[in-house]
Amino acid sequence: MRDDVGVRPETSLLWLQSGGCGGCTLSLICAEQPDFVSALEIAGIRLLWHPSLSEATGAEMQTVIDCVLAGETPLDILCLEGAVMHGPYGSGRFHMHAGSGKPMKDVIAALAERAGTVIAVGSCAAFGGVTGAGQNIAEATGLAFAGHEAGGLLGSEFRAKSGLPVVNISGCPIHPDWVVETLLMLAAGSLTAAHLDGFGRPRFYANHLVHHGCPRNEYYEYKASAEQLSNLGCLMEHLGCMATQVHADCNIRLWNGQGSCTRGGYPCISCTEPGFENPTHAFLETPKLAGIPVGLPTDMPKAWFVALAALSKAATPHRVKSNAVSDTIVTPPTGRKGKKGP
């Protein structure tokens, strides 16, 4: 009788870094319940190489890549962290792959052809991100997008051996659970193209808005707005918060078990969206036209927003209004007088 009957085949994963800061890895190793290494073990994923977690030397890592390209080592999942750097003038020589004499972009493209699934980890790998900000001298793009435009290194028609397009886990940085959950779904064979949105992002987080679950939502409903960062009120009207327009579940799937940008008193800057690195206004300012914020909540007609905002402000309780411009709760909720329960 065969000894491997009923044993799930191992899934191999190779992680590379290109033009970026490594912040997505720093976030990923903060994963909890389970931690990242335990998640790989649970899913039966074998890490071929990771720049921060592997002890292999550069020469040993090059051997791993050579074996994959030669078809000797299967590659089920290729993860790229950081943008693909095409400069100067499309040569890719701004980022050479040490030990191979080849531009990193060419190595990535060759590995993608061998991979079962290709994952862009972070907004740089997905869209170009901060690496492509400003004049984009580095000619940075994502794997399948350059900002909002389809294309990037692999092109919009790219499909990995699994049939999936590039899976874009955008964020700057990513929430560790977004990566862990994606890998678990891939290892289980349950991730399909239907689970991805139009930008290739997993819907389990991209079908939400950062606004969902925000503890400042009562202030938002009454349009009771903070006037400075330390205030408790809604950050949308004056301080540039884009949570009502940004796809992510940051206030539902909390960071480190308890935090998010808005919970920490800082406005959402849209880091999961393409182009966030080149905002049309300062991050801490809300552009307005005739006193009305230009960036309105997703799917809300301007006329409705204006009407509802006027009604909401007229009905704002004193408690909400006073707390909104305070650094602490100065007026707590009061009890309602009435019949006592049994």
CATH superfamily of the largest domain: NADH:ubiquinone oxidoreductase-like, 20kDa subunit
Q: Could you give the distance between the termini?
A: 68 Å
Q: What fold name goes in the CATH topology slot of the largest domain?
A: Rossmann fold
Global morphology: elongated
pLDDT averaged over residues: 91
Order of helices and strands: EHHEHEEEEHEHEEEEHHHHEEHH
SS field, number of helical segments: 11
- CATH C-level class of the largest domain is Alpha Beta
Regions with little confidence, pLDDT below 50 for 5+ residues? 1-7
Q: Which percent band covers the strand fraction?
A: 5-15%
Query: How would you write the strand order of the largest sheet?
Result: 2-1-3-7-11
Write a short abstract of this structure.
The protein has 342 residues and is an alpha/beta fold. It is 26% helix and 12% strand. The protein has two domains: 196 residues, 3-Layer(aba) Sandwich (Rossmann fold); 121 residues, Cytochrome-c3 Hydrogenase, Chain A, domain 2.
Write up what this structure looks like:
The protein has 342 residues and is an alpha/beta fold. The protein has two domains: 11-206, Rossmann fold (3-Layer(aba) Sandwich), CATH 3.40.50; 208-328, Cytochrome-c3 Hydrogenase, Chain A, domain 2. The protein has helices at 23-28, 36-43, 58-69, 104-114, 123-127, 176-188, 203-206, 217-221, 236-239, 302-314, 318-324; strands at 11-17, 45-49, 77-81, 84-85, 96-97, 102-103, 117-121, 140-141, 145-146, 149-150, 167-169, 288-289, 292-293. Strands 2-1-3-7-11 form a five-stranded parallel β-sheet, sandwiched between helices. A hairpin with a 2-residue loop joins strand 9 and strand 10. Mean pLDDT is 91; it is low at 1-7.
